[in-house]
Design brief:
Order of helices and strands: HHHEEHHHHH
Largest sheet: 2 strands, antiparallel
Strand order of the largest sheet: 1-2
CATH architecture: Orthogonal Bundle
Number of strands: 2
Number of helices: 8
């Protein structure tokens, strides 16, 4: 894949949260139950997304994490950059730290079109689109989740 496991978990958590967007707060245990992610690992990821302003958090029994803006305003690119940085969008395919426009590696020019397409794809994909697809693909498990969440 193009991004890390941490970015994958962030995408999965935000997709789930986007499915029920409307100011709903999610506890880590609720997300981990649905997505089968380590609670400790997910907590760190959600804190990073909160620091970046994508989520708000409230402590306490009724607290949790909530999207800070509508899902259609959050892009896949934004989330991957928060978790992994920009290297998949502007880094060297070969991992050459000195590779750039002035000092290109042997693959730099060939990879430029791939990098541009990847950036465009990730920028155009928002969490409203992802959550709509998620809801279609997982209708049965989401019904159970709603009962668990008392939504």
């Amino acid at each position: 894949m193009y991004y890390s496991r941490s970015a994958e978990y962030a995408i999965r958590a935000l997709t789930l949260m986007s499915t029920f967007f409307e100011g709903k707060y999610f506890q880590v245990k609720q997300i981990t139950r649905m997505e089968d992610i380590s609670p400790t690992y997910l907590s760190k990821i959600l804190r990073d997304l909160t620091k970046a302003g994508l989520l708000t958090s409230v402590r306490g029994p009724a607290g949790g994490f909530c999207l800070s803006k509508p899902p259609q305003d959050i892009t896949l690119k934004e989330v991957v950059e928060i978790i992994d940085g920009c290297k998949i969008f502007n880094g060297c395919l070969l991992g050459d730290m000195d590779c750039d426009e002035r000092h290109p590696c042997e693959m730099h020019d060939s990879f430029e079109s791939v990098r541009t397409k990847l950036t465009t794809c990730f920028q155009s994909c928002n969490f409203k689109t992802l959550s709509d697809r998620y809801a279609l693909d997982r209708a049965d498990s989401l019904a159970e989740f709603k009962k668990f969440m008392e939504i």
